[in-house]
Amino acid sequence: MKYHEKVHQSAAYIQEKLGKIQVGSAGLVTGTGLGGLTSAIKNAKSLFYREIPGFPVSTVDSHTGRLLVGTVEDAPIVALHGRHHLYEGFDARQATHAVRTLGELGVGVLILTNAAGALNPSFAVGSPMLIEDHINFTGTTPLRGDNHALWGERFPDMCEVYDSRLRRLAVDKALALGIRLERGVYMQVMGPNMETPAETRMYRAMGADAIGMSTCMEAIAARHMGMRLLGISCLTNKNLPDCMQEAPLKTVISRAEEASSTMTALIAAILKEIRDLTDEA
Questions:
Q1: Among the CATH numbers 3.30.1360.40, 3.30.70.100, 3.40.50.1580, 1.10.3110.10, which is that of 3-280?
Q2: Is beta strand 128-136 parallel, antiparallel or unpaired with respect to 228-238?
Q3: pTM exceeds 0.70, yes or no
Q4: CA atoms within 13 A on the CB side of 10
C-alpha cells in the first residue's frame, strides 16, 4: 500500500468511529509534558493510535498516543496527544503520518506545540515562545520520495511557514492575558541526545533561539498540504554553553507540566477567535 493510501485509510477509520470531522476544525499537536492541553477539550471522543489502521504508535512514555475530537471554547478541534519522533526510529514520512491524517480529515489550521531548550540567553525558562520561523537541521524531510499531487506541489514554498495573522493573534492574546511570550526561531535536531556546549554555540550562531527534536517535520508536511500553521514552544530549560547544566527528561516534563496551565489559557484564547480569522482568509 502506498503512503498516501495508508494516510487515507487512517482518516477513513477515524471518521467511521468518531463521525465526520466538523468543517473548520483546528488541529493541535501536544509536545512533551504538554498533554494537559487536551484536558481543555469538551465532549471529547478519542481513539488510541494503536487502534487506527496505519498509524505509527508512539514509543515515548510522555506521549500517550491518542487522537481526540471535541471542542475548546466552542471551537471544533482534532488533537494529537503525543507525536512521533525521528529518534524513535521512524522515518520522516512515518513521523508526519498523523499530521497528514489531520489534513485528510479537513483540518485547515494546525497548532504545533513542543517542549524546547532556550538558546537565546535573554529568554525566560517556563515561558512560551512563538515560533516565527524554523531551521530543519535533521538532514531529512517528509517530502522525500514520490510527490502526491493531491496534497501539494513538488516544490512547496516555505517563505512563510508560520502564518503571520495567526502569529499576530497569539501576540494579542498573550498581551491580554499578561503572558510573557518570547518570539524566535526554532531548530529541530534529530536527537535523542542533548546538545554539547560546542553544538549549542553553533546552533545559536546559525540563528536559532530554541531547540528541540520535533515540529519541523510536521510543519513541512502541513504546509505542503496547504494548512495554516501556528507554532508555540514551551521553554523548559536554558542552554548556556559556558555553564551548561544537565536537562534530564524528567526535568523537561516537570517544567512543561508546570507551564501547561499558561499554555492552555493562551491556546484556548486563540481558539476562541481562530475560526473567525479562518473564515476571513
A1: 3.40.50.1580
A2: antiparallel
A3: yes
A4: 29
